[in-house]
Design goal:
It is a single chain. This protein has ten helices and ten strands. The protein folds into two domains: 6-72, Chemotaxis Receptor Methyltransferase Cher, domain 1; 82-265, 3-Layer(aba) Sandwich (Rossmann fold), CATH 3.40.50.150. By secondary structure, it is of the alpha/beta class.
Length: 267
Amino acid sequence: MKSITDTELTQFRRFIYDAAGITMSEQKKALVEGRLAKRLNTHGLESFSQYYQYLSSGEHPDEVQVAVDLLTTNETYFFREIKHFEFLRTQALAARNRVQPFRVWSAASSSGEEAYSIAMVLADCMESTPWEVLGTDISTQVLKGAARALYTMERARHIPQDYLRRFCLKGAGEHQGKLLIDRNLRSRVLFRHVNLNVPLPNIGQFDMIFLRNVMIYFSDDTKREVVARVIATMKPNGFFCVGHSESLNNISGAVESVAASIYRRTG
């Protein structure tokens, strides 16, 4: 496998910052090298610098998306940081019997576990009240996996047993050791390709937004820009969940803290 130089690493750190607003540390050298090496072979390129020029030419937008997918994919699992789902349940029960849909956005949904976890809670709580879940990500590749909704049992270890029985199908044969999200629940979740680092498409307004374990990779300036865009899609008094290692303190004055890593839109 070809080795990446420090200069080439700097080029790709700039590339992913410009494309996705992600600040990648110098310690990610092995990750960048490992994930991109096959793309050099695919295109018959001799160095990472040549691949960077290939991406920068403006002639290969599909390959740019492939590189973004490779450099931004993160592992996740169902019901990660359970306190947020307990809070979601409380809000969903309080909104029951209203006319307008209760809308939740999983803004960095990765391979879909977060969005489907949200959907399970809403399906359990909302009864006849309409609800919607939107899952978005910058990676088109993980969104394809999210739409398939086929997962290893290891990622499902935190799904409540009742939800496993109601919303999941156990794999057999070639899918032994996996689960498939039930078709009815799957049909209630919409996945879209959205880059939070640029102006957002018209996706409507939300009662609750999950943007978790992503902003740790953003600079403060990028955080402020992304959070401002996201908050603009929140309904008055809507809620914003971030990862437990993240904070919106000194990032936005448009929200106030209501619990650990949970904020409410003010004004």
